[in-house]
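Schema walk-through. Below, the input block comes first and the output block second. Nothing else is stored per chain. Lengths vary across the set, and this one has 168 residues.
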Amino acid sequence: MKRHIISILVDNQAGVLNRVCGLFSRRGYNIETLSVGVTEDPAVSRITVQVDCDDSTADQIIKQVDKLVDVIRVVELHENHGVFRELALIKVKAQPKQRSEIASMVDIYRANIIDVASETITIEITGKPSKIEAFEALMEPYGIKEVVRTGLTGLCRGNNPIKKERDI
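--- output ---
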């Protein structure tokens, strides 16, 4: 099993995400991460899906997704030819005497403190999943209260956008 990152351009309309995810569900494919957002064209959304499977299963997924009516284009983003990021918000227990320690680690990881309460600090961190996991491990001794992660998103490197005119 290996990580496959699939980028799907779709029409930005109600029900499209449900149809794409339904295909994964019906076929028994587990989605590891999922992120969705509107592109530079408000009529088009990009769905980024990470699945852990063998190469032939990934090829099969791509072919099946590409057959869906509202799908414009499907491509696999390869780790060597793409830029990938994830966002996490991490709420950590932080007594006043620990805050400077935590703030130092936040700076080292190029993260941001986005909320401070009487007993917690909420931190925003963006990067590769391995960076986020390493930061979480560093925060464990302080006591993590909550974590939310966006899921992986990515683009091809260089001047090769994932675009295609709709087949007529």
